[in-house]
């Protein structure tokens, strides 16, 4: 059974940084695309970033490009999201996710991802 556990959320001032982590278990971590989504109150869950199996290829939402960096450590079965220059529009619950099948595509659609963590809250104060 695939399990994803996020950590690293918290309160940060505008312009500050946070690093989220996602620990994965239950299958071969290095065989699957990984991603981050976020959901703010009253809004749909939206794509943030995705990374290929080997960590070579990445994809970002326009709203976070240049500020956020997705990475992974396959030896540690861990996914990361480094968030810099945080803005007042970034607060949300951030979710780690992965696909149910091996693929080279870095999906942005929520329906393409099968497994989700419980989420970690990110709050930005102005």
Describe this structure in words.
Helix content is 0%, strand content 47%. It is built from no helices and eleven strands. The strands form two sheets. Strands 2, 4, 5, 6, 9, 10 and 11 form a seven-stranded mixed sheet that branches. Strands 1-3-8-7 form a four-stranded antiparallel sheet, with no helix packed on it. Strand 7 and strand 8 form a beta hairpin. It is globular, with a radius of gyration of 13 Å.
Brief digest:
This protein is 0% helix and 47% strand.
Keyphrases for this structure?
126 residues, mainly beta, seven-stranded mixed beta sheet, four-stranded antiparallel beta sheet
What order do the helices and strands come in, and which of them pair?
Elements: E1 3-7, E2 10-13, E3 18-25, E4 34-39, E5 46-51, E6 58-60, E7 68-73, E8 78-83, E9 92-98, E10 115-116, E11 120-125
Parallel strand pairs: 2-11
Antiparallel strand pairs: 1-3, 3-8, 4-5, 4-9, 5-6, 7-8, 9-10, 9-11
Spans where pLDDT lies below 50 across 5 or more residues:
none
Helix content: under 10%
Rg over alpha carbons: 13 Å
| Number of helices in the DSSP assignment | 0
SSE topology string: EEEEEEEEEEE
> What is the overall pLDDT average?
96
- Approximately how much beta-strand content do the residues carry? over 45%
Main structural class: mainly beta
Q: What characterizes the major β-sheet?
A: 7 strands, mixed
Termini gap: 40 Å
What is the number of beta strands?
Answer: 11
Globular, elongated, flat, extended or rod-shaped: what is the shape? globular
